[in-house]
Design brief:
Helix content of chain B: 55-70%
Helix content of chain A: 10-25%
Largest sheet of chain A: 6 strands, antiparallel
Oligomer: heterodimer
Radius of gyration of chain A: 23 Å
Largest interface: A-B, 53 and 59 residues
Number of strands of chain B: 1
Structural class of chain B: mainly alpha
Strand content of chain A: 15-25%
Number of helices of chain A: 12
Order of helices and strands of chain B: HHHHHHHHEH
Shape of chain A: globular
Number of helices of chain B: 9
Shape of chain B: globular
Number of strands of chain A: 19
Distance between the termini of chain A: 14 Å
Structural class of chain A: alpha/beta
Radius of gyration of chain B: 19 Å
Number of domains of chain B: 1
């Protein structure tokens, strides 16, 4: 055996698996399809606005030619361009009338560099939802199963937030919260008074407000309030694979990282009922090479992991590795986004703030939990909120030139607030990832075909989120209140999930309650593809907890010789 | 400032010259546009020398030097020219040149002279009137033009640090303070 374990992918899930396995004494190989990235050295987070190419704007022709999909992500700009793939080099197929936005970055650390850093626990209302209303299949775990792992990953990652005592948004191991600004404090008072069933809390986010000794030992420091996180953070103040998990894994001496190698397929040994090899392609030379290990973790991200498993067909698994259930590739989900509202507030003109907070506030889900009446859909949505005073940018849409304009822009403009809804999406078997065998990428790998669209429940939920956001802003004294606009195509929230779901029954799911393939004891999947439902909160913290839990479970099995 | 539809001698002259410019002055306008219209290779300049001179005066009107340096000192004209070359698509570049052309045409229509030949207060009148009209119409081309001038100034070192306030490393988040304690608007 080359290694004890192979981890495919180095993003949030892969980083966590590598750390846990290495710390359990297992010789671990992480295979990353993209380029190597050196923490700090490869970031441009100390560039001033006037040093950023084209002041942040990416050339219009370049966007049209290479970044038509990736550029729809709000964090895409000339200072972060290196963190997104060129759509022209990494194509995928969709039906023409059902667009899907597959937002990706191929480099060490994956999307843990550009993620939104919002970190919330799922509660039993989420883990029990499928069983309760009969959509999808039941999760094989409940909150009690994952709670200690949430504790563990929060402590290590460093999550700031405020405990609220809500069962549906469980409290955690929090560093001090990033405080609400003047307007948000007023908003919180007004909303909680007007709607006693709703809550406003500082955003829970993976930023070090007060680093612990464990964080400092890894070279991480406190948040400097720069809010250039998506360029990478030289202070290591937010959690990423590069700032936290991979350095911890390296410290053990058990970690090997292989970049620029694309995993094409997994080999299966039917006699042993095990994955026997990981076949890779050197992305620079096209050369193939196979690696062996006692256990394999797929953490390549939902769609990429699904692509590899679908391609790993054999006599025994003609529809993809571990796909006896036909669930592999189905039930693709993503949080419904493009919903919410924004407005301006006439007050607090003598108040301001200092620094650039890299987070906002959160309105946890209330629909179908603390409020049940008058709703024509199931599940619900939460709101991430952002507010601040406008600056010079407002002049683009305001009349005025000359010395008067210049004088006016010295003061900040009115306060603005945006409520950004994240809605739960139900699992539908027809929302599906398949392989398009007729079309191949430059390495000869069949393209993925993504067919995914929102259903009636998502539409109703989105409409209600818009209404509620408008009403809350009006109730809190805002003006110029308007809904955000149209629901974005699925994929836009970059929370894709569900295509290799966990379940109790091998006939309807790919993975068991430990993220282990039902039929293949040494194959684990811990990225978003394992998710049985989406819940309404940002999923990365749950991937971390499930990854750490599954890695330790696998280490136990390896230790006892069961796999 | 002045409304061109008045009966003063000056304005009649302005109207007349404006009309001459629009009819007979087509040649001048063609010359004004030509270098960019025919731009083909990457080496070709994004705008002609005449267009650049007009751009300089327009951005100087939009963000003048006051008790702090203005757009000229911040290098906004060169920035805009660079952006037209490196950032803008052909369509956007044509739009920008159209905006400049319209400003020039309005200078002739209102005051009977090229923008460059007008005194500062008349330039302000021409640009202010165009700005008001274009923004009320939500003209996207002018919006992009104005944004580029604004970003060129307020994200320059002068605009960000001398005119507004910018700290590369704020170091802390202070959530609620009197505006007087913080001072000016943050540039980012």
């Amino acid at each position: 055996m080359d290694f004890d374990a192979i981890v495919v992918g180095s993003g949030i899930s892969g980083g966590w698996v590598a750390k846990e396995l290495c710390e359990r004494g297992l010789r671990t190989l992480v295979i990353e399809r993209g380029r190597n990235v050196t923490h700090r050295d490869d970031y441009n987070d100390f560039a001033t606005p006037w040093q950023i190419p084209n002041r942040g704007l990416v050339a219009q022709d370049e966007i049209a030619k290479h970044y038509a999909i990736q550029s729809t992500n709000p964090a895409f700009n000339s200072a972060t361009k290196q963190w997104w793939v060129r759509d022209s080099e990494h194509p995928y197929a969709t039906p023409t009338d059902r667009p899907y936005s597959w937002i990706r970055g191929y480099h060490l650390g994956g999307r843990s560099i550009t993620w939104g850093r919002q970190t919330y626990r799922m509660g039993d209302v989420d883990f029990g939802a499928n069983k309760l209303d009969g959509n999808g299949i039941d999760w094989p775990i409940r909150y009690a199963d994952i709670q200690p792992w949430y504790d563990r990953v929060e402590r290590f990652a460093g999550v700031s937030g405020a405990n609220e005592g809500l069962e549906h948004l469980p409290d955690g191991q929090f560093l001090p919260p990033l405080e609400l600004n003047c307007l948000e404090t007023s908003f919180k008072q007004r909303i909680e008074q007007y709607y006693p069933t709703r809550r406003v809390t500082p955003g829970r986010c993976a930023h070090l407000t007060e680093p612990t000794a464990e964080h400092i030992a890894l070279g991480r420091g406190p948040c400097q309030s720069r809010n250039v996180c998506e360029r990478g953070c030289g202070y290591g103040a937010y959690f990423s694979s590069l700032s936290a998990t991979l350095p911890a894994a390296k410290k053990t001496g058990n970690l090997t990282i292989l970049t620029d190698y694309i995993v094409e397929r997994l080999d299966y040994d039917h006699a042993k009922r095990r994955v026997s090899g990981v076949r890779t392609i050197d992305s620079n030379t096209g050369q193939g090479r196979s690696y062996q290990a006692r256990v394999v973790f797929m953490c390549a991200s939902t769609i990429a992991t699904t692509q590899v498993l679908l391609a790993s067909r054999s006599e025994y698994f003609p529809h993809g590795l571990g796909n006896r259930s036909d669930a592999l590739g189905r039930h693709l989900m993503d949080h419904v986004v493009g919903i919410g509202a924004s407005g301006t507030h006439p007050g607090f003109l003598d108040r301001y703030y200092y620094g650039r907070r890299p987070s906002g506030f959160y309105v946890p889900r209330y629909i179908n939990i603390t409020e049940n009446a008058d709703v024509d859909f199931i599940r619900g949505f939460g709101f991430q909120g952002y507010s601040g005073r406008s600056s010079w940018q407002r002049a683009e849409k305001e009349t005025g030139v000359g010395a008067d304009l210049k004088q006016r822009l010295r003061d900040p403009g009115r306060w603005e607030m945006t409520l950004v809804g994240y809605g739960e999406m139900l699992p539908h078997a027809d929302n599906r990832v398949t392989l398009d065998e007729r079309r191949r990428d430059k390495w000869g790998i069949p393209l993925v075909h993504i067919d995914c669209s929102h259903g009636e429940n998502e539409r109703r939920l989105a409409e209600r989120a818009n209404q509620d956001a408008v009403r809350m802003l009006i109730a809190a004294g805002f003006e110029n209140v308007a809904p955000l606009g149209a629901v974005k195509p699925p994929g836009s929230s970059v929370h894709e999930m569900g295509t290799a779901r966990m379940g109790r029954d091998p006939a309807t799911s790919v993975l068991n309650g430990h993220n282990q393939a039902h039929d293949i004891s040494n194959l684990f999947v811990t990225d978003g593809s394992c998710m049985t439902s989406t819940g309404s909160v940002n999923p990365s913290l749950t991937y971390m907890a499930l990854s750490a839990r599954a890695a330790n479970y696998a280490a136990d099995l390896l230790g006892s010789g069961e796999i | 400032m002045s409304n061109p539809v008045t009966n003063s001698k000056l304005d009649r002259r302005a109207m007349l010259l404006g009309a001459v410019f629009l009819v007979g002055g087509g040649a001048a306008l063609t010359r004004f546009l030509k270098p960019s219209e025919s731009r083909t290779g990457d080496d070709a300049p994004a705008m002609s020398g005449e267009q650049f001179m007009l751009l300089e005066q327009v951005v100087d009107t939009m963000i003048p030097a006051t008790d702090t340096p203005g757009a000229l000192a911040a290098g906004v004209p060169a920035f805009v020219r660079e952006m037209l070359g490196e950032w803008a698509s052909d369509a956007t570049r044509r739009e920008f040149l159209d905006v400049l052309e319209t400003i020039e045409r309005q200078a002739w229509a209102q005051f009977g002279a090229a923008y460059l030949e007008l005194p500062a207060e008349r330039r302000l009148a021409v640009l202010g009137r165009y700005d008001e009209d274009a923004i009320s119409r939500q003209d996207p081309a002018y919006g992009r033009f104005k944004y580029l001038v604004l970003v060129g100034y307020y994200q320059s070192e002068i605009g960000a640090t001398e005119e507004l306030r910018f700290e590369l490393v704020p170091g802390a988040w202070r959530a609620c303070l009197p505006l007087t304690e913080v001072g000016r608007a943050s540039a980012v």
